[in-house]
Amino acid sequence: MNLNLIEVKVMTKQEAVPAVSNILMEAGAQGVQIDDHKLEDVAVISYFPDDADIKSILLKIRAKVVNLTAYGLNPAPAKVTARSLSDAKWATTWEKYYHAERVTRFLTIVPAWEDYENKETNQIIIKLNPGMAFGTGTHPTTKMAMQALETILRGNETVFDVGTGSGVLAVTSRKLGAGDIFAWDNDKNAVESAKKNIALNMGMQNIQVGINSLLEEIIGTADVIVANMLAEVLLPLVPQAADHLKKGGKFITAGIYFDKLDDMIDELNQHGFVINQVMSVDNWRSIIATKGEN
């Protein structure tokens, strides 16, 4: 049985992308993707089930996007459009624009439907079918998180992937030699997508995926915690990460828009983290931090 979806697209400026993404998710979107290949306007695209009250949802989205000016953001052109999309057409759209891409020195993302010949012995291939979950591996925030994992993982680490989305960072961690990996998301569609992507890749036996809100009620500690989410969600995660990281453990945060970087660094410092590196691609930032000894 085909699932019909409604695609809602908001055209905005880079500076308003995190806020617009948050508006869409709060409205009930089943995933958000960002098309920022154009120099000026950015398309923030989301998907809703076809039984949603889309007229009411669109009115609320438009009002909140336009109101971003009250917070000092420029959401122009603030154009909100919607169209019906079958799952078959949605999949075809992905296959048209989503191709194999080398995202770090050693990591290459390959769509599940694409035949790809690996001609380099040092290349690590990650098969991915993002479905409705956030995280294709090609957005700057995901690339920086993957680069950070490639930099710090040495083998057999316990990794917590918070807000796993498509599962790309959990798969990346395993491919880079991590030991036990625990991945959570508060969206059941993301959890199912992550499980399917894990199954596409070899040697993924040590990954466990489940539904959870951040690290609430999670027991245990990790050597590495990675989270690719907007700063508004990352900020309340910081104290939880401090409680769940081993001393000297690494905390990788991505999804930080440039104007939220200082807030994120302040929060990390307040909870005993030492900033090791700030990565930057376009207007997005990622941080590698170490839990202090105290």
Automatic annotation (TrEMBL):
MF terms in GO: protein-lysine N-methyltransferase activity
UniProt xrefs under HAMAP family: Methyltr_PrmA
One cellular-component annotation, GO: cytoplasm
Alphabetical keyword list: Cytoplasm, Methyltransferase, Ribonucleoprotein, Ribosomal protein, S-adenosyl-L-methionine, Transferase
Top-rank taxon, per record: Bacteria
Lineage of origin: Bacteria, Bacillati, Bacillota, Bacilli, Lactobacillales
Species annotation: Fructilactobacillus lindneri DSM 20690 = JCM 11027
Signal peptide: none
Name used for this protein in its record: Ribosomal protein L11 methyltransferase
NCBIfam families registered for this protein in UniProt: prmA
